[in-house]
Write a structure and sequence with these properties.
Layout: H1 2-12, E1 23-26, E2 42-45, H2 49-57, E3 61-63, E4 72-76, H3 81-94, E5 97-103, H4 108-116, E6 120-121, E7 125-127, E8 130-136, H5 143-148, E9 152-153, E10 159-160, H6 172-180, E11 188-192, H7 198-204, E12 211-216, H8 219-228, E13 234-238, E14 250-255, E15 260-261, E16 264-265, H9 267-280, E17 281-292, H10 298-304, E18 305-313, E19 317-325
Parallel strand pairs: 1-2, 1-4, 2-3, 4-5, 11-12, 11-14, 12-13, 14-17
Antiparallel strand pairs: 5-8, 6-8, 7-8, 9-10, 15-16, 17-19, 18-19
Helix pairs in contact: 6-7, 9-10
The structure holds S-adenosylmethionine.
Length: 330
């Protein structure tokens, strides 16, 4: 666990935490162990709505962007290398001293090697298949890493950013879903977990669509979607799709539900997307979804819909159409 390693690292190096000034924590997810850090000077940067809300609920200062200046920055390294580099660059831009923590499987060893070429890095504290170290540098040393986190244009002219789902190209599962959608999916469609907007873009090309609600937890992905979908019929919601509800029930819900929360596999998350999707729908509404073939969504679909059909897919992915949302089973 990275947080435990971080706490041990701080214990091991008394005096490392500054006596005064802000401490900015980047890449933290809710539930992380913040013990040992002064809460009144702590400032968490989070982009996923459920994490953001959880920090707020614990009365921890949380924001989308780092402050201009801090006495110390702490970065928990994500797996996506461009996002990790962008976080380090953002941390270096606000603090001269940056603690970097990460798992070997998330590439902490190569990141440390790269950082040693650019700035002074202290000895790495190794524990639980990961490393923590202190780096002291200047933002100029990492200017190109800051750039790498910026927008990129992929197939179809879509704009994405480091760390969003399918940042480098259209997801192969999502790519299959538009073919399975009818010519007229309904006037009001919800794209649950809409990411940077691939499915919504396909929906907007269908007949009779008057409104699309794109619901996405990752603020950065949502901002990409705004750029990709300059269409007045789309409403963008930075929200948890397992709780969000439209003001009026929708005719259709589309999704390629997530089954990871941060680094943790969480197949239950997809099940909660399906359950909430059923609640969002009008009585005659339908849900279309694509999922990895190994994920067992049939049971939860049958719990929440009267009719469930597998209508397509390939060897890796399956596509379902579910009709008749059953209210009683909430
Ligand atoms: C498998 S991706 C699909 C993205 C997009 N629909 C596409 O087809 O490219 C799942 C998306 O759900 C988002 N997500 C994860 N948890 C969420 C939640 N609780 N509420 C809303 N969106 C969430 C992820 O950030 C990701 O963009």
């Amino acid at each position: 666990m990275s947080a435990t390693r971080l706490a041990l690292f701080l214990d091991d190096q008394p005096g490392l935490l500054p006596e005064s000034g802000g401490i900015v924590f980047m890449g933290a997810v809710s539930g992380i162990d913040l013990s040992g850090l002064p809460r009144d000077r702590l400032y968490v940067v989070a982009r996923m709505k459920p994490d953001f809300e959880a920090f707020e609920a614990h009365e921890i200062a949380v924001a989308l962007d780092p402050p201009e200046q801090a006495a110390l920055a702490i970065v928990i390294v994500p797996r996506a290398k461009p996002e990790a580099r962008a976080l380090v660059a953002a941390a270096m831009a606000c603090a001269d001293a940056v603690i970097v923590d990460g798992q070997k499987t998330d590439g902490i060893d190569s990141l440390l090697r790269e950082m040693r070429q650019r700035c002074a890095c202290g000895a790495a504290f190794s524990k639980a298949h990961g490393k923590t170290f202190l780096a002291r540098g200047q933002s100029e040393d990492f200017a190109d890493w800051a750039q790498a986190g910026g927008p990129r244009v992929i197939e179809g002219g879509f704009r994405t950013r480091a760390g969003v789902f399918s940042a480098d190209g259209i997801d192969p599962a999502s790519r299959l879903l538009p073919e399975a959608l009818p010519e007229k999916p309904g006037a009001h469609v919800v794209d649950a977990g809409g990411g940077w907007g691939y499915l919504s873009a396909a929906i907007l090309g269908r007949k009779g669509v008057e409104r699309v609600d794109l619901v996405e937890a990752d603020r950065v992905a949502l901002e990409c979607a705004r750029e990709n979908l300059p269409d007045g019929r789309v409403q963008f919601h930075w929200a948890d799709a397992t709780r969000w509800m439209p003001e009026t029930k929708a005719d259709a819900v589309v999704m390629n539900p997530p089954f990871h929360a941060g680094r943790k596999g969480e197949p239950e998350l997809g099940a909660r997307f399906i359950a909430q999707g059923a609640r969002m729908l009008a009585a005659g509404g339908r849900l279309w979804m694509v999922a990895n073939r190994h994920l067992p969504y049939e049971k939860v679909l049958r719990t929440h819909f009267r009719e469930v059909e597998e209508i397509g897919g390939d060897t890796r992915f399956k596509i379902f159409r579910a009709s008749g949302p059953s209210r009683a089973r909430g």
